[in-house]
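Table S5 (text form). Sequence records supplied for joint modeling of the four-component complex.
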Amino acid sequence: MYEMSSNMHGRPPRFSREQIAQVAFESADREGFDAVSMRRVAQELGAGTMTLYSYVHTKDELVALMDDQLMGELLVSEEELARAWPDAFIAILRQTYRLRLKHPWSLAAMQNAGLGRNAARHAEQTLAALEGSPFNDEQKFMVMTVADSFVDGHALHRIEVTTEQAPDAAVRTRSLGALERIASGPYPRMHRSWVALESRRPLAAAWMDESFERGVSAMLEGFVRQFSN
Amino acid sequence: MYEMSSNMHGRPPRFSREQIAQVAFESADREGFDAVSMRRVAQELGAGTMTLYSYVHTKDELVALMDDQLMGELLVSEEELARAWPDAFIAILRQTYRLRLKHPWSLAAMQNAGLGRNAARHAEQTLAALEGSPFNDEQKFMVMTVADSFVDGHALHRIEVTTEQAPDAAVRTRSLGALERIASGPYPRMHRSWVALESRRPLAAAWMDESFERGVSAMLEGFVRQFSN
DNA sequence: CTTTTTATCGTACATTGTACGGTACCATGT
DNA sequence: ACATGGTACCGTACAATGTACGATAAAAAG
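The corresponding structure-token record, covering 458 residues in total, follows.
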């Protein structure tokens, strides 16, 4: 589709789309997704704002490039893929999970991204990691879908809870923090579970990690049984 | 904390917070989450824009009210809760899933919402639905967390795919649509799975539903086995 | 009526995405 | 060497956003 570097017309570009995406990517990591504006990105590149629109039709397209860059970090070596089921598969899930937590904006960005090149490669690799599994092609696809859903959902909830930042948030929104609400309201079971949890510190991170791991293995175990009729 | 209707001072409010939240809620359903602005909501109420700020400190607080209203739709009758494990629990998961699909904006809204009153009630009910299960208190909490993660993640992915609207989207973002990319690139396994899927039409909705159902039961089955050591 | 308290809302400002149009630049054709 | 045409560059402008500020209006309490 694209003409190559021969047969060039007009002024050559100063940047590449990947460069621009990278700057936006790092900006999102540092200042948060909402802080990524066309003006800011352009400024960090030392360019005028509207210059970006020579590289990108719309901001959504820039976001899609960011997402593609992110998914690139998920690609895995061939040796990694060759590991026996279910190790390679679970390793990919863990890596995806870590990536979502490291770049919390990616879950919001995803919405306007579509299936990029690296996302497709990642999916292909995920299917490859299911090679030794007892599933057929359609089942593999479903297991992948379900597992990805769980990974992203778990990351989403974890980010949500973690981002519920310090003490003034409750005041700012005039709503109670989660703990005060549970403690002060008629939520006996929530309270019981909370107490049961408190005896097993540390709470937040380690418990979330265990929850993730158990979720993954429960799901896989269930699928193996379900698809072995 | 709050004074009751006796002992009132000053001008009485024209609206209630719930009213305002409802208008915003319906607006989000009709025009999408991004279309919900303070100006629009105020206009639909027949009020000046800044009037809203007598009811709400910030837009995030309005979003939190919308989320609370949403979670209210999840509350379930006592008879429903009394059903034998795992029926009540699965029923709640299905209902949550349907609600997420019906109000796709809710996943984005959640991010700035925090644990509202109805969300806490919903969690309490979810734990109650686990009453006959073989899990202890801490395990119940984890099963709930994991299940909710899966439900929301599945809805997130499904919305993402569904919203990838018609044919001009690919042009608009200069990126290929998912199908063209899979068809045209080196993604043999994706292609195979896709072919395997095409023989089982209808594709989108029914397959997603099955994927959801299988994911839920796989996960529960796995948890039961895992927690029965 | 006066005072106190609260609701209402017009104006203003900073920030956003991006349409428009002009200018600068470079490879190519003559 | 020069003209041509295509592309990058970017200043300006506009509509829309959240919301701070302060004036005004209204209703209840004294």
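Note: Chain B has a mean pLDDT of 89.
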